Amino acid sequence: MTFQTVAVLIAALLSAAANAQSDVDPGTVRADQSLIASPPPMFTFGGFGTFGEVHSSRHDGDYTSTSLKPNGAGYSHNWSSDVDSLIAGQITANFSSQWSAVVQVVSEQDYENSYRPSLEWANVKYKFDADFDVRIGRTPLDTVMSNETRKLGYANPWVRPPLEVYDLVPVIRNDGLDLSYRHLVGPGTNTLHLAVGRSDSDLPLLPGTVGVIHGRKQLILTELYEQGFASARVNYSRANVTINGLEPPFDTFNAFGPAGAAIAANYSFDNHVVNIYAVGASYDPENWFVMAEWGHIQAGSFTGNNTGWYVSGGYRIHGFTPYLTYAAATTSTTTQPAGLNVAALPPSLAPAATALNAELDFQLASIRAQHTISAGTRWDFARNVALKFQLDHTRVDAGAHAVNQDLQPGFPTGGTLNLISVSIDFVF
Amino acid sequence: MTLTIRTAFIPILLSVTLVHGAAAGEVVAVVSAKSHIGPLSKSQVADIFLGRVNRFPDGGIAIPIDQREGSDARNLFYEDYAGKSPAQIKAFWSKIVFTGRGQPPKSVANEGELKKLIAANPAAIGYIDAAQVDATVRVVP
Asked: What is the pTM of this model?
């Protein structure tokens, strides 16, 4: 299903539902609607956004908030507004107490460095009853705890969620079917969420090249339990993933006989089964909060088998919410493999083999392996607007890159990265 | 882009209006005088307003009705019943609205309109200043 087919499908469903609505006899409107003096508005409009500026201590490469962005703070900009800034608008249509639809459009820096608005989600929802609904169309892919609200800065305590966990899975959309079932369990509420579908995400690779992450047979299963101030969730997701755009360097290994072919096969990303596991919990009583999350992705190939976790806490005092976060990312993938045995090759082939080995090491160094401590504060200084200030200090493991875009020749692995971020988040 | 974003900070900062919780009377949860629901704890009332449950403990449908955003009664109610500031409530509903999972309760402009709605609908639940309670509504025990 392409963007266009999704959009056409949604439009068709919207107009069908709108026509169906006009046929409804007012007397048959369900009790829970007739109780309200004036019926809820058919369409509601809202939106949210962030204006943010980020400064990085590294000038030999660009820090970005997701691997789907091509450049950011550091080499390209001393202070970058591209890392966090965005604006989103959403229209919700309520056709009846059972049928509704939502379309959300987001404008932010995209893979080709434009702010062309893109369709974030667009789906039609049918409520079987107040606790059970199905959505068809484009819905959020909720692998890790707040993946679906990672762009909604106003709802999050931080300038941006810890990338150690949130960049494990850059894909955030699911085109397909999504079921949600809620029921009371003891003193709490349990929500079971199942989604199936597919996705296509454009991915900037080296400068000037663009790839696509194709997710097929996506399955997302989430179990959420909420009781009072506490919530906990467990998630399992899987997909058959193909990444297009990286073939040239890896295909070249095939020219080096069986040893080269083995390397090419090892790092192919064609219909590859990816499994994701995530566990998260939060406790948010009146004046403070603490939350923690752990995620693991088994993707293999050049994106690796990686684990990320964080613990974050904050305290609310007179409109200010200072917070502290510790996050870590590790990988069990060998990031500096042996590659081709250059010494065993004819001298005429040695330079090409050395270059290929370096290319492979460079690609694998983009797997995140680091520890970050972040300190910041949120200030709710006016209604529906929050100002945030955040400092990040990251220690990068040997063999991993501190940032992943616009790396300049000789960019080292390991080292440290410091960031200063200021942002204003708003909802309307 | 950088320039426009920097200049955009200025008017927003100039329009700073500090959020304050005005000291007013006590706010109580109310249902219709015709309602037969039993006692509810503050956290059970909060769960209904936060969309976590949609039924009263006796199984009847519960329809929460909010006061106007920014009103003293609303701010006091969520502070007292849910332990949340207006910004936390806004953030809470933003998460639900902007992921397409739901909509916040319907809100009414003033306490008079709220009392009229509550009085007429045994399923409705709202909150008003304790001094405004009259024979048409019943304070949730």
From this structure: 0.84
